[in-house]
Amino acid sequence: VQLVESGGALVQPGGSLTLSCVVSGLPISNYDMRWHRQAPGKEREWVATITSDVSSSSYGDSVKGRFTISRNNGARTVTLQMNSLKPEDTAVYYCNARHSRLYDINYWGQGTQVTVSS
Question: Are 22 and 4 in contact (CB under 8 A)?
């Protein structure tokens, strides 16, 4: 199983960035897909979830209204569109696949760095 994130970069406050996660080695349609992030010196924080059947999505309070999660099961990709970025969004962003029924089955990517700074 591999989850490979990409798209991390240095961006100015107020800017936008799109992160992608390509998934291989598992039946993605059986997995809820999530993004998490971890800032230096802080615990990993949940950012967003999109369900396996693409029926719903949910967001952490700190990103609600600014970030959008989407997925394309056929292309085996998950995307996080991030708008109105703030310095406090600076973190390593991780893609996570969690089985839609068996929550103990989890896979993680290696992360991609997002830095928001002028």
Answer: yes
Average pLDDT over the chain reads 96
CB-based burial, 57-75: b 16+ in 10 Å, e otherwise: bebeeebeeebbbebebee
Mean pLDDT, range 64-79, rounded to an integer: 96
Cα–Cα nearest to 36, from 21, 17, 56: 21
* E-only strand ranges, 12-90: 17-24, 31-38, 45-50, 57-59, 67-72, 77-82
| 81-107 tens-digit pLDDT | 999 999 999 999 999 999 999 999 999
- Which pLDDT score, from 0 to 100, does residue 55 have? 80
Residue 54 pLDDT > 90, yes or no? no
Distance between CA atoms of 87 and 25, rounded to whole angstroms? Answer: 35
Distances in Å between the Cα of 86 and the Cα atoms of 7, 12, 101 are 17, 8, 34
> Which stretch of DSSP H or E encloses residue 99?
strand 91-99
Instruction: Tell me the residue type at 100.
Output: S
